[in-house]
Recover the amino acids of this structure.
């Protein structure tokens, strides 16, 4: 049974985690908005000598590798909370499980956001709207799939309790 004061700390910490995740998720919308606004003002694309097709394949490949890496990294960090350092100098009112889960969420969300940035790069370099939509959509779907979950925080809390 979890102490009521710890439940309050976990709840308030989880609310902060959701705000952080939401801000990272909202940045994908900002990228889309910027591209929609700048779309008509950009030149048609890069010079013919630049290997845009190779860059496109490379960025899509990196996106797939990023998705696989996030899946395994997130599971590893949730199963082994000792690998995550979330210490701050001085006393903290934040629960240690919340601090560690915050680090996990920020790392995985930033990696998933990078997929959307690859789409932004392709759009700015080649005015490739299809790749922009595909990579932003993939990034958004992955961020929703790996969104912060209260159950994961509670499991992390219990795992940390048993570790001592």
């Amino acid at each position: 049974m979890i102490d009521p004061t710890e439940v309050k700390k976990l709840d308030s910490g989880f609310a902060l985690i959701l705000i952080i995740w939401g801000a990272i998720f909202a940045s994908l919308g900002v990228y889309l908005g910027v591209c929609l606004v700048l779309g008509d003002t950009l030149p048609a694309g890069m010079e013919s000598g630049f290997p845009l097709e190779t860059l496109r394949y490379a960025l899509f490949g990196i996106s797939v590798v990023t998705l696989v890496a996030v899946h395994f990294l997130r599971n590893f960090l949730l199963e082994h909370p000792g690998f995550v350092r979330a210490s701050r100098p001085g006393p903290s009112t934040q629960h240690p499980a919340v601090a560690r889960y915050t680090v996990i969420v920020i790392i995985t969300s930033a990696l998933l956001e990078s997929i959307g940035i690859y789409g932004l790069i392709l759009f700015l370099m080649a005015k490739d709207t299809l790749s922009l939509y595909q990579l932003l959509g993939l990034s958004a779907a992955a961020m929703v799939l790996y969104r912060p979950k209260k159950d994961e925080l509670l499991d992390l809390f219990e795992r940390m309790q048993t570790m001592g």
Q: What stands out?
A: The two ends are 16 Å apart (CA to CA). The chain has five helices and no strands. The chain has one domain: 4-163. Residues 42 and 52 are 16 Å apart (CA to CA).
